[in-house]
């Protein structure tokens, strides 16, 4: 049985601190089709060291992200939304392959995109609320 996405096209490495990399201990795990039990791909398995590296990268990035203005932050999130939408067919196929879910039941990409669209606007909503509160206090 063939899969809609060839295994060599599936990114199997971990993405940490802006870089795709293999597991530090070369660990992998096999992903099999729940339908046919056929091997789809060997994925890199995150080691304790990889996890610590990912957490450290997230902690290091947090201050900069926290100090990013709402417009820039919203712009980054909107770009992420567009990437999710552009990749929705591929995400659907990957989910069907690895999880056995029917393609007709796949809605996760669009739901995720809608959640990030909401988050992209939250900075503006907080600013508007602050302005309204300040304005009403001045009256």
From TrEMBL:
Its EC number is 1.2.1.3. It catalyses: an aldehyde + NAD(+) + H2O = a carboxylate + NADH + 2 H(+). Transmembrane segments: none annotated. It is an enzyme of class 1 (oxidoreductase). One of its GO terms (molecular function) is aldehyde dehydrogenase (NAD+) activity. Residues 23-125 form the Aldehyde dehydrogenase domain. InterPro entries: Ald_DH/histidinol_DH, Ald_DH_N, Aldehyde_DH_dom. It holds the Pfam family Aldedh. PANTHER family: ALDEHYDE DEHYDROGENASE-RELATED (PTHR11699). Belongs to the aldehyde dehydrogenase family. This is aldehyde dehydrogenase (NAD(+)).
């Amino acid at each position: 049985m063939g899969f809609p996405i060839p295994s060599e096209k599936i990114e199997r490495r971990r993405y940490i601190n802006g870089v795709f990399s293999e597991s530090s201990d070369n660990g992998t795990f096999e992903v099999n089709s729940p339908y046919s039990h056929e091997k789809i791909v060997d994925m890199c398995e995150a080691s304790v060291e990889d996890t610590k590296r990912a957490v450290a990268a997230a902690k290091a990035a947090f201050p900069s992200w926290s100090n990013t203005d709402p417009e820039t932050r919203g712009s980054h999130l909107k770009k992420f939304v567009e990437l999710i939408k552009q990749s929705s067919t591929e995400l659907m196929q990957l989910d069907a392959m690895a999880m056995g879910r029917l393609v007709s039941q796949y809605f996760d990409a669009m739901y995720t995109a809608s959640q990030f669209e909401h988050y992209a606007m939250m900075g503006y909503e907080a600013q508007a609320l602050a302005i309204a509160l300040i304005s009403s206090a001045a009256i």
